[in-house]
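#data-curation
PF: Archiving a pair of folding outputs for the training set. Convention for this channel: one message per protein, sequence first, structure tokens after, nothing in between. First:
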Amino acid sequence: MNNLGFGSSILNFFGAITRYSYGLIWRTIFRKPKFTFNEYLYGPKNSDNYFDQTAHVFNNKIIGLICIGVLIFLLMKFT
């Protein structure tokens, strides 16, 4: 997966899941065009609003780290 380590791949995947879920809900409510999961994971296909793959992977890692941190906190708090 683009020379990412295993931990980075996990964070990228969790971040993409979170962004996809949020985007799916948000874009459904406001009737905007939806992106595929692969576009959230690897970046959008070439379009007018093209962002490079590095930015998407970085955003996915940050969001994945936050989500996993919140999940661990909630598990520790309520178990």
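PF: Second:
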Amino acid sequence: MTFFTGEQYRKSLKELSPEIYVRGEQVKDVATHPLLRQTINHIASGYDLCLETEMKNRAVVCSPISGEDIPRLAFHIQQEKEDLFIKAELTREISSQRICTGCGSNMLSVTWAMIHDIDAAHGTDYSSRYKHFIIKLHKTGCPPFAWCMMDPKGDRSLPPSQQRHPADVKIVGRKPGGIVVNGAKLHTTLGPGAHHVVVVPCRALTEADRDFAVSFALPVDTKGIKMIARPSPGPSREVSMESPLSSRFLGVEALTIFDDVFVPEENIFMCGEWEQAVNLSFYFASLHRQSKCACSAGHCDLFVGAAALAADVNGLGMNIAHIRDKITEMIMDGETGYGCALGASANAQQHPSGVWLPDPLIVNSGLKTIRSTIGKHLEHLHDIAGGLVATMPTEEDWGNPGLKKYIDRSLRGSEKYTTEERLRALYLVQDLAASRTTGTLLGFTINAAGSPATNQVVVRRLYDLEKRITYAKQIASILK
């Protein structure tokens, strides 16, 4: 079976009955709920994008696991070095158009590697279960899954077993044929639009934390699974000019609750093997942060295009030195991040499971660097576009015939553009730099794939400082 089209995906949601809440009320129909429309559209557009002529050769790959053609960025286990380069290229290109590509391939791949480690250390056979799950996804249209990794953590100075009221997902019971889990996962991106949830550990654990070492997959409408979704940053009403990006793309994040959920044995991929929990975080820090370097480069491209267009509709273009310098600076920042994504791919090492893991020193250094530019880029957007992005009339004002003539006369810019075209360009800058979407962009940049502090932790852990000290001593003729 080939994978879904966007329309087939939308129809597939009618077959599910998940327990989803938005603004305190339970959602009756995920496919049509007005506060979930950007989420559903974002996922649907991902399927359709793979079928576009200019994208298909890169965005679709034949899986060596299932033999099916699948969306590369969402479902492919990355077992060829070339996968890293193609993924980086696609991620940058798509992120420059719609902020988020979706990185399911990374999630499935790092779990594949962790499960291999568990089987090698304990003689288990979780890999066959996981492979069966992957093949099932591939052969049933590649229905989307929600990635449940991040734990609430509670008091972050304490491990989960020492929390007074632990909230992390935990094995709380064992029954014939499976286990019972309880707890929560944070930041479930696009979760209400998924068919399945995939749960994995989030951090290093000790033997006392054994019951928190659990990984499994379940249908999203399994009894006891609940999602409390925050509305997407885009407008809740239909628009045609304002919020041109967030009215169509991005989506919700959810708090996912597991309320005494039964997990059948065939769906369990980790069950108490605490020693290997840290491995997933380490692999994630390599593979997913490579994508984030490319993703952030795509955001730079988006900012560059919006800034240059705003300058042009204002009648200035690239003729003004400070505008030219700021746009060039954003271009160079994007190329730096993308260069790190490619450099880390070139230095990648293959895990025994077959998964290729980019150089973690390069990706963490690159991501920390490009993350630090987001505030400056938002400042440049405001500076280049002008104060109007924060004070301009609304789309409804423009739609009022009695007001339109005054707005048209007052806000005309370059003679190359109509007033409406100028407003549309500035609405894009407003969406990026002066809206709820701005906060989401900041969150994506600063905390997605782990915080900047975790980038530093990985670099300090892996960098061979003693070797550099030895070289310095040799040069300085210090013999001890």
